[in-house]
Design brief:
single chain, eight-stranded mixed β-sheet, seven-stranded mixed β-sheet, 26% strand, globular
Length: 590
């Protein structure tokens, strides 16, 4: 973490100086303070020249969250926002998963035990933490931002009008808000989605499930491990241990529903959930001391055809968007809902910022719906297969375990890959860095920072601050100076040299053997201080060039988007190719 750039500041370095602004017009109105809305708000809150407002129909912040699974990829994003360590401290860490199936006598017995996350998949863990606590971290980040952004609670959207010219008009119970852009992060019953007349499409599985967070005693040995249980004839149960060491979540298969029947028609109670859990766990016992939270739901998968008021092929750039549960809903057992919703917001946030700062055409905003709708459809397909496999009767005990392991990379959130297009380059030079797949998230690896010999994760230099990253893996020739000139040509006057594209060079020599002229490091800030944290060397115990398949002779340029996804891989010596790609994204100048 770097600070004191513009002068010494005592106290918490995460609390940024409050911005002085007289701007009254709303640039971005966010509707809803769920995971998607708060991710977007926390991202935009750090840009005082962008006036962001966030409204919520509830009277206050969430106290008891429904979602709890936090994928490795989401933890990587939390690192970019600066609070992954706080989540790590509080959360339950999912290290192993066990599988239980009926034995010859019909009693459940453990049939498998595997690592939950494969080695080397991410430097971050898979963890469990209440959605409400994740909200707390975002809200704290917003309060420490230059804009001191706070949600406007008790505000309900009652209507929305998109005019041919001028701002979008949003009617609320407290009056009218005019905004350049509106984002509906207001859940499965989204008022913004209804105003756009965009339907959720999909089908229900006609299956009722219950979920409850409980404090209980039991003689079941795997109560503190993530556990999938498939009984002989009493249904299935998924155990998710919760943070704090005592609480646990049960997802309980209850019953098949008749056509056109709703789960509410069954009038299920907490006692029904407990009884079903006891039947599935038999012969083990369960004594529920306290039910912290419970609900019943129907399994279904639904997704919208587009995530904005205009489609990717329309001539008019979008001005109203939907994100998270407003545009995709599914079962909760795979733990993907909150994670995918936050990635929706991260994808949209930097694009809104770039357009509002005038560094790209509003046409860039078409890429949000184009990229994220395809990801949501993948999620729907995965969730349907996962839910059916989990509840399947009479299958070989190894079948669901194999299904789980096969899709572990997907559930970890690291399999998202954006197709080639405006922001994602072709794979012409992918062989130069085989471990940094174009279109997928930047896969971090350990390095040694040259200036202070500190071991760090290279991916942790990618902060959620709107900047692109250019990682220059040096081959036989060091092209740092030539690349710096290209970056300068895409940097507005009177801006820090790394304010748009932050270049980091990684050499092949050890940090004690590497010598460089520190005058090559950029100077910036009000005091024109030199940034020494731009050069990195391999970790002798885990060489990044070997780990990520970097061509040692040619080297590689890995260009990373502000949301941590690899935009392109290019040869360092072919600088014209980099210029052409940056020009395609930004125009002649940023």
């Amino acid at each position: 973490m770097q600070y004191h750039l513009n002068g010494f500041r005592p106290g918490d370095p995460a609390r940024q100086p409050a911005a002085k602004t007289t701007k009254t017009d709303t640039d971005v109105l966010i509707v809803g303070t769920g995971p998607a809305g708060l991710t977007l708000a926390a991202y935009l809150a750090q840009f005082p020249h962008i006036r962001t407002r966030i409204v919520e129909q509830r009277d206050g912040p969430l106290i008891m969250g429904q979602a709890d699974g936090i994928a490795c990829r989401t933890m990587e994003m939390f690192e970019a926002f600066g609070f992954a360590h706080l989540v790590n401290r509080e959360a339950y860490h999912v290290n192993e998963t066990t599988f239980w199936n009926p034995d010859a006598g019909g009693n459940i017995t453990r049939t498998g035990r595997v690592d939950d996350v494969e080695d080397g998949l991410s430097e971050q863990p898979h963890v469990i933490l209440s959605q409400a606590r994740v909200h707390d971290f975002y809200l704290d980040l917003m309060r420490k931002s230059p804009t001191r952004l706070e949600p406007e609670y008790g505000t309900q959207v009652t209507g929305l009008t998109i005019h041919d010219e001028g701002p979008v008009t949003v009617d609320t119970n407290h009056g009218t808000i005019n905004a350049r852009y509106v984002i509906g992060c207001d859940g499965a019953r989204s008022a913004v989605r209804r105003a756009l007349n965009i339907p959720l499409k999909g089908e229900a599985e006609n299956a009722a499930w219950g979920v409850m967070d409980i404090l209980a005693t039991t003689d079941f040995p795997d109560i503190r491990l993530k556990t999938a249980i498939q009984s002989k004839d009493q249904g299935s149960l998924l155990i998710i241990p919760r943070e704090g060491g005592y609480m646990v979540r049960f997802y309980i298969e209850l019953a098949k529903l008749n056509p056109n029947e709703r789960v509410a028609d069954r009038h299920l109670t907490p006692d029904d959930l407990i009884a079903a859990a006891k039947r599935i766990l038999a012969p083990y016992t369960l004594d529920v001391k306290d039910i912290v939270w419970w609900s019943v739901y129907e399994i279904g998968q639904r997704v919208t055809d587009q995530f904005a008021d205009t489609g990717p092929d329309d001539a008019t750039p979008p001005r109203v968007f939907i994100a998270g549960d407003a545009c995709h809903t599914h079962s909760p057992k795979a733990g993907q809902g909150m994670n995918v919703s936050m990635q929706d917001a991260f994808n949209l946030g930097w694009k809104l910022q770039t357009v509002l700062e005038g560094r790209a055409s509003p046409d860039l905003l078409h890429t949000y719906s184009a990229e994220r709708q395809a990801i949501a459809q993948d999620l729907i397909n995965f969730d349907r297969d996962f839910a059916r496999a989990f509840a399947a009767r009479g299958q070989d005990p190894q079948t669901f375990q194999n299904h789980f392991q096969k899709h572990a990379r997907y559930t970890a959130g690291v399999e998202t890959r954006y197709a080639p297009g405006h922001l994602t380059g072709p794979n012409d030079h992918q062989a130069l860095a085989t471990g940094f797949t174009i279109g997928k998230r930047f896969h971090s690896a350990p390095v040694i920072r040259w200036a202070d010999a500190k071991p760090i994760q290279l991916g942790h230099t990618v902060m959620a601050d709107g900047r692109w990253r250019l990682f220059h893996f040096a081959g036989d020739t060091d092209h740092t100076d030539a690349l710096a000139k290209i970056i300068a040509s895409h940097t507005p006057e009177n801006h820090d040299p790394d304010s748009i594209i932050d270049m980091r060079t990684i050499v092949q020599t050890g940090h004690r053997e590497t010598h460089t002229d520190i005058a090559r490091f950029p100077t910036k800030g009000a005091l024109n201080l030199r940034d020494m944290e731009k050069l990195f060397c391999p970790d002798p115990d885990a060489d990044i060039f070997d780990m990520r398949g970097i061509d040692r002779k040619t080297g590689a340029l890995v260009l990373v988007r502000p949301d941590q996804y690899v935009s392109h891989v290019l040869p360092p010596g072919q600088q014209d190719a980099l210029v052409n790609w940056l020009t395609q994204i930004f125009g002649d100048k940023a």
